[in-house]
Amino acid sequence: MVAVIDGDTIEVVRQGETARVQYIGVDTPEPDQPCGPEATAANAALVAGQQVWLEKDSSDTDTFGRLLRYVYSGDIFVNAELVRIGYGRSVRYPPDIRHNDYYEQLQANAPRPACMPPPLATLPASDGQPGAGVCDCAGPDLDCADLVTQDNAQTCYNYCLDLGYGDVFYLDGDEDGVACASLP
Prior knowledge:
Blueprint: E1 2-6, E2 9-14, E3 17-23, E4 26-27, H1 36-47, E5 53-55, E6 67-73, E7 76-77, H2 78-84, E8 89-90, H3 100-109, E9 120-123, E10 133-136, H4 144-147, H5 150-162
Parallel strand pairs: 3-6
Antiparallel strand pairs: 1-2, 2-3, 4-8, 5-6, 6-7, 9-10
Helix pairs in contact: 2-3
């Protein structure tokens, strides 16, 4: 038996107890973000009421006590399917990265669902520093080093917030509204 929490989280009954499961290596929009309800519905279509098979990577649980697992429903690899249909994006959380190369291949050819606004922002050069290219709120993942300057990091951070994605790249680690404060 499976209950769907959101696009990348389910509850299962395991050994007579309910356990919350976070899909490894995949991030979907939260229910209050663009495409969040659709991602939850896509997950439900794959797993709701089904028996699922769970596969562990290196870690057992995350900091919230959720089981970290690859999830299979019948012959469908659910984590990968969500990426393939465009509701999930590949995220790397070492050491649990066994399937991320596969996810990234799927992501490169995935459609962008109609509910997803265009997530691209061109990051200009500033203060004699080169531009960092494009900020795509749907991935691939960026970190502060990829963004070159604090201005570029702030542009990307603000852009993704304005579109409703939140701080998808965790550029504001101390949550003070300033992205990548250590960059020039």
